[in-house]
């Protein structure tokens, strides 16, 4: 049976990986500066992760959410302790799209409204409401287009104010650092005014931290660079270091009700064990400190390369913008230099999303390879 052909594939077949390196079926070593879409947070096959997942699957991999699961409580407590999001509550699911879907559903349930405000170049997933709030008509099917979504420009505070005052908006959803869209950010003034307007208009402010969360931005969450209090925070990607897990953090002002949200696999024992190992490693190895140190070093070198016209993002969520499309450059980096990087909807942007364990020597390796590829 052939695979349904929806992914353009590079001719590389990884068979193993360790920390920041991936190895293919010919034994070639690749430097991974993309982390499988920012999923690999604590490095491939980290010993803590391998041990935790192995131990848990040997004991109990799965049972339903109809029984007690102390691992979910441990995970929630650890997220609260490391993120500083005091008194939020946690609902666990399986992916970033599912996290955003539940965030939007919760906002609609609680406000009694149905329209969503999202932003140009935003990406929130491929499920029904999440994809409708994504600024890409090519992935929105007619069944998704029934959702009521208004797409505005980032920093258009007057547009946000006008739409919110119509009284039918349940949620404003935003990436504080856009991922697929190309690492663009709103201003502090914009984000902070949106937060105020949402609270004045019975509208939930949803922070999509699926890609930017878990320390990647240099803080635990990217919204923490600003004076805002999201009603809902969506998380996934780096949360499980490769194991499928997602969730939403829900403000304590929002009351739960049986049956409001649900999932079969979300928060299963194996997922929680993986998630706990990630948080313990981030804490024990001081990986957020490493993010900030390596980011500063990376950007300082990037500024010396004349072909790089703009540097976007924060922490280890970095975009290098050129004055040409980077598709061929990415191929050179993969096939000639054996380095994985990422693209974006901005075709001139190279996206850098390495494991948070990356060291200066790996940054040096990348820039030497980049210089060769540019010449």
TrEMBL record:
CDD domains: OAT_like (cd00610). Its cofactor is pyridoxal 5'-phosphate. Keywords: Aminotransferase, Pyridoxal phosphate, Transferase. Pfam families: Aminotran_3. GO terms for molecular function: transaminase activity. Belongs to the class-III pyridoxal-phosphate-dependent aminotransferase family. This is Aminotransferase class III-fold pyridoxal phosphate-dependent enzyme.
